[in-house]
Design brief:
about 170 residues, mainly alpha, Diphtheria Toxin Repressor, domain 2, about 75% helix
């Protein structure tokens, strides 16, 4: 063997198999995406059709074969770009969930303890505390009367907007 000859990298059968399973798993993530998100990725038409077909299948064997086919088609695309996009969406989802939980915690605190409004006002000085107090009273009044609280969503929205203003 001459020094100027390129060395051929030999990949073991096991590593090839792991790589193919990883592509098939990525294909499963694609199948689970919404139509809008799937369109945003910009997959080749053949792969896009295969993913759409997999969504229609209910028979386990047929679905498994379709997923293997998707895995095969995935070899022709750059998986890192797809993985990057999926992780970006996942991060956004986690961020939205964290915000939602923060708003929920504030909503419950404000409905349980009237003194929490002072703390909320200090943390979020641009919020309309008077309006929030009015909505909270209305919710508590409806709860006491055994009625569904009509102001629950507007209260939640106002809290979310106030919190978003502070984090932006």
């Amino acid at each position: 063997m001459h020094e100027d000859e390129e060395e051929v990298e030999v990949q073991s059968k096991s590593s090839k198999k792991r790589e193919m399973h990883a592509l098939q798993d990525l294909g499963e993530e694609l199948v689970a995406l919404s139509k809008e998100r799937l369109e945003e990725i910009g997959l080749p038409e053949k792969l896009l059709d295969a993913v759409r077909e997999a969504r229609k299948l209910t028979n386990f064997g047929a679905l498994r074969r379709q997923m293997q086919y998707i895995g095969k088609l995935m070899r022709e695309v750059e998986p890192e770009e797809i993985r990057r996009k999926l992780s970006q969406w996942d991060a956004q989802s986690k961020e939205n969930a964290a915000e939602f939980h923060l708003v929920e915690r504030w909503r419950e605190r404000l409905l349980e303890d009237d003194s929490a409004f002072d703390e909320f006002a200090r943390s979020h000085p641009d919020s309309d505390i008077t309006r929030l107090r009015t909505l909270a009273r209305s919710i508590l009044k409806d709860r006491a009367a055994g009625k569904p609280p009509k102001q629950y969503r507007p209260f939640f929205r106002m809290l979310r907007e106030a919190i978003r203003k502070e984090t932006d």
